[in-house]
Amino acid sequence: MFPLSTVLFPHDVIALHVFEPRYRALVADCLVADGCFGVVLIARGSEVGGADERVATGTLAAIEHADALGDGRWHLVARGMHRISVRSWRPDAPYPRADVEPWPDAPPPTAGPGPAPGPPPSPPAAARALLAVRRARALLSELAEAPAPAPDLDAGAASAGAWRLCAAAPVNVFDRQTLLEAPGVEDRLELLADLCEATALDMTRLLSGGGG
């Protein structure tokens, strides 16, 4: 397990500079095994030195590129695969370890007897979330706090598109964790739209010179 001060979503990519001896050992072990490790958010504490408080929901990451720097350090590029739930933490040996299980999205609600509806999310939820993310990013660009280009994503492409849209959203790390823990795609996109609409409202007030 690799606790970090950020949230990794499935289908998103993360770059890591690995320098602590315990995480150098983690990389070495991963590279001779399946190349995977778990990423969870540090709720309190630091990435360096241990004694951190960790959340119980994270993402399984797969190493896509590992560059050894010659002095024991590594540059890694890893991709989020799927959501995981931590059942229990084991003693560090020397890096954090845990018993985990996959946590798939909840199935979409059915309308009663008969076949289940098509793949989530529903178009209104996807459209609302996509519009909210684009608006929040555009307003942030006016404050010179984020790149201007809006995500060109098909949020209606069910789970993968929803995760990519979450990764593009300009929200804080604790909101990202809340998005990661949303039960299903529909819930996630409704929450994403709420968060980005609130962010856009705050930024509109700042740009207009209004108070909080």
What does this structure look like?
With 212 residues, this protein is an alpha+beta fold. It folds into 2 domains: 2-102, Archaeosine Trna-guanine Transglycosylase, Chain: A, domain 4; 123-208, no CATH class. The chain is 35% helix and 27% strand. The protein is built from 5 helices and 6 strands; from the N terminus they run ββαββββαααα. It has helices at residues 21-32, 123-142, 158-168, 173-180, 185-208; strands spanning 2-4, 13-18, 36-44, 53-68, 74-90, 97-102. Strands 1, 2, 3, 4, 5 and 6 form a 6-stranded mixed β-sheet that branches. Helix 2 (123-142) packs parallel to helix 5. The longest helix has 24 residues, at 185-208. The N and C termini lie far apart (39 Å). The mean pLDDT is 86.
Q: TL;DR?
A:
This protein is of the alpha+beta class.
**Mind summarizing the main beta sheet?**
6 strands, mixed
Coarse shape = globular
The unreliable regions are none
* CATH topology term of the largest domain: Archaeosine Trna-guanine Transglycosylase, Chain: A, domain 4
Strand content: 25-35%
- In whole angstroms, the N-to-C terminal distance is 39 Å
The helix/strand class is alpha+beta
CATH class of the largest domain: Mainly Beta
Number of domains: 2
Radius of gyration: 19 Å
CATH superfamily of the largest domain: LON domain-like
Counting copies of identical and different chains, the oligomeric state is: single chain
Note the total helix count. Answer: 5
Return the average pLDDT rounded to an integer. 86
Order of helices and strands: EEHEEEEHHHH
Helical content band: 25-40%
